[in-house]
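Design request, tokens follow.
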């Protein structure tokens, strides 16, 4: 058995760096891969006459879904759910996406409303459109979670499992004025370490990740200060991505004439359940009524999914809400 508890995450989120401002990042590539696979799946089902789209319509549909559903919804969801105070204080921060900041719940909500608009405009079944789209969506979630892992973000809770890893982003959360003496002591140690390796006093916290990725001496000195943690991004990729896709793909293929709304309802409920499960291993930003933020928002998805299932079993397959 390979033990990874001392493995220090040093993957670079930039795949290709042309200039300081022109870069190809893994996160962006993950979105492209997700949209490409989604397009291929929707074309597959359109050719078989499954769903509301004709093959010639798939490219435009997936493009608009990506722009106005996933990207706009994901960004707005992140700002409202996870960075509300910063967004209200500076609404223009919405457009500063270089540092990341997307929420899967927001992306799902964005697709929810985009498909509603598209269905009304083109006189199609809303739930019929949604059923194929939600079958493809987990592949996008899979690639997105892999990108989270490459970025070293959304890491897990402390753990002693053999495959636990250390993520330098943990050190960016320590502050010199922390009420926890142990964390304040670590913050001072990291600051001195960063200054010794070329960081300037005014921006040393911003230099922790670049130094950990590109300077071996800094990374080795930082390693003992960090905590071994679950690689929760990989758990989420497996559960929210692969497991969810396998479930929905199997139902779509085996039951091509399923009542409209059935797969959409299954998606909302299964995604929420799997998200609640993998959040048990993820380091929470904060809690709401005893739940992590991700778990709390997922509870509402279960109710939405139940409403779609109720509609599906009370309507004919060709009906639309």
């Amino acid at each position: 058995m390979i033990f990874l508890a001392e493995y220090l995450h040093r993957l670079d989120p930039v795949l290709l760096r042309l200039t300081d401002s022109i870069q190809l990042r893994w996160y962006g590539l993950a979105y492209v891969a997700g949209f490409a696979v989604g397009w291929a799946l929707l074309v597959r089902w359109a050719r078989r006459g499954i769903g509301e789209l004709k093959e010639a319509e798939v490219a435009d549909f997936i493009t608009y879904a990506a722009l106005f559903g996933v990207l706009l919804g994901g960004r707005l969801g992140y700002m409202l759910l996870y960075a509300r105070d910063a967004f209200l204080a500076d609404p223009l921060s919405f457009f500063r996406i270089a540092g990341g900041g997307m929420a899967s719940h927001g992306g799902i909500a964005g697709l929810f409303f985009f498909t509603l608009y598209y269905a009304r405009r083109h006189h199609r079944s809303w739930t019929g459109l949604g059923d194929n789209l939600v079958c493809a969506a987990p592949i996008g979630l899979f690639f997105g979670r892999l990108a989270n892992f490459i970025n070293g973000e959304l890491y897990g809770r402390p753990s002693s499992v053999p495959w636990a890893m250390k993520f330098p982003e943990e050190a960016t959360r320590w502050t010199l004025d922390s009420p926890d003496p142990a964390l304040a002591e670590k913050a001072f140690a990291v600051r001195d370490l960063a200054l010794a390796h070329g960081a300037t006093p005014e921006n040393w916290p911003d230099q922790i990740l670049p130094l950990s990725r590109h300077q071996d001496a800094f990374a080795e000195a930082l390693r003992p200060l960090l905590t071994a943690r679950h690689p929760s991004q990989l758990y989420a990729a497996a559960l929210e991505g692969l497991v969810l896709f396998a479930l929905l793909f199997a139902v779509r293929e085996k039951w091509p004439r399923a009542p409209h709304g059935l797969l959409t309802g299954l998606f909302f409920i299964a995604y929420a359940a799997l998200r609640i499960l993998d959040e048990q291993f993820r380091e929470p930003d904060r809690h709401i009524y005893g739940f992590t933020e991700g778990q709390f928002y997922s509870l509402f998805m279960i109710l939405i999914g139940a409403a779609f299932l109720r509609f599906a079993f009370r309507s004919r397959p060709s009906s639309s809400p």
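Comment from the thread starter after seeing the answer: thanks! The radius of gyration is 22 Å.
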